[in-house]
Write a structure and sequence with these properties.
Layout: H1 9-24, H2 30-65, H3 68-73, H4 80-103, H5 122-159
Length: about 160
């Protein structure tokens, strides 16, 4: 199976070794490995959904921070120094939310059968699911880092 772009060789090799190991556990079948990969995708999709919820809360906090009432009550936060952390938080929030939405983008790979009803592309099918799993995990991890930057940005805003 070819390594997908943007995924390190060591990460891809570890994923392939892991799938091969899953086959040897209790005599798992190819179908069991595919079910396992789909379960992992479900976990990543759920985490991305939760992170999008956190990002929504951060958006509400950021909107409060730029509201006129807040600026009137805390004029020192309306300075240029106060706007830098807010801009950092806003940009991080926007990128993280975009990545979470990209994780949810669907593209289906289908099994194909030959004239005898035998699946002809099981290995490619499994590799595609593995690629999607690793890719979505990397995108999710980057989105978490961006959300943490947004939290730090909002925290710095309140400290200034």
């Amino acid at each position: 199976m070819d390594k997908p772009p943007l995924i390190s060789t060591s990460k891809w090799r570890a994923e392939m070794d892991h799938m091969a190991g899953r086959l040897t556990i209790n005599g798992n079948s190819e179908s069991d490995v595919i079910d396992y990969l789909y379960n992992r995708l479900t976990i990543v999709d759920g985490k991305a959904s939760s992170l999008l919820t956190v990002n929504s809360i951060l958006l509400a906090v950021g909107a409060l921070a730029i509201s006129q009432d807040f600026a009137n009550e805390f004029p020192e936060l309306a300075t240029n120094y106060g706007s830098i952390p807010l801009k950092l938080a806003g940009l991080s929030w926007l990128l993280s939310s975009t990545l979470c939405l990209i994780i949810g983008f669907l593209g289906w790979k289908h099994l194909t059968l030959d004239s005898n009803g035998v699946v002809t592309n099981l290995s490619d099918y499994k590799a595609t699911i593995a690629k999607v799993t690793v890719h979505r995990t990397l995108v999710y991890n980057f989105a978490v880092i961006l959300t943490l930057l947004a939290i730090v940005g909002l925290g710095l805003l309140l400290l200034f």
